[in-house]
Amino acid sequence: MSLESPYLYLGLMAFSLFGPLLRSFESRIAYYKSFKSLFSAIALTMVVFIPWDIFFTHKGYWGFNDKYLSGIEIANLPLGEWLFFIVIPFACVFVYRVLNYFWPNSKIDVYQGRMIAQFLMWFSGAVAIISWGQWYTVSAFGFLALLMAIHVYWIQASWIGHFFRAYLVILVPFLLINGILTGSFIAEEVVWYNDEMNLGRRLFTIPLDDIFYGMGLILMNITLYEFFRNRWEQQA
Fold first, then answer.
1. Structural domain harbouring 92
2. Under a CB-based contact definition with an 8 Å cutoff, are residues 78 and 13 in contact?
3. Assigned domain for 1 exists
4. How many angstroms separate the CA atoms of 78 and 62, rounded?
5. pLDDT tens-digit map of 201-221
6. Which of 3, 180, 204, 221 could form an S-S bond across to 89 if both were Cys, CB 3.0 to 4.6 Å?
7. How far apart (Å, rounded) are the C-alpha atoms in residues 213 and 127?
8. Is residue 177 part of a domain?
9. Count of domains in the chain?
């Protein structure tokens, strides 16, 4: 498939899904056994992120280039964007599960993980406050600060260090997929951003805000995934 295609967004989602889905049924990892927990987590996370996406698209804080879209839309969001919130968490939680299986002892221990979460809580909260009016920045960093506060003061999950380890690994394919979506290797952007609504700083073609938005997206998915696994699988 040429990158200059109206099926580029759908193709990137298919590419992101292919490996994790294919390996989901291996007996060692047995990712498929967690599908009930996984898709429950994804569905609840979409309840937060899809309205956020629809509203920001409507306001023009970001948008989509028809050149790279199939033309299929639901609630004014392209099909590829809906699939993004299913496929990317599916792939990222797969990475998290694989790392936990093969390397159960993370070098980021529980204490260190909680210290990182506390730092990110204060850092993200501060960025959200000083960026008031730049609504992508405020919402992405504010949401991440809220999630980190929940982990610092309420959940205190033993797996938080494993999450940070997984997210560092996830950043590698993130740079590729999100890079293409924001204009790397192609003539135009698939997803464009109004830089007046974000930090206005980019890593290659990727807005820096996306790294923290992505962290919030994956953390919410993994938090709910672990909650449902503990409730349904480990007590079965």
1. 8-233
2. no
3. no
4. 13
5. 999 999 999 999 999 999 999
6. 221
7. 13
8. yes
9. 1
Q: What DSSP character marks residue 25?
A: T
Say if residues 226 and 157 touch (Cβ distance below 8 Å).
yes
Q: Which two three-digit tokens encode residue 109?
A: 């221990």
Residue 78 lies in a domain: yes
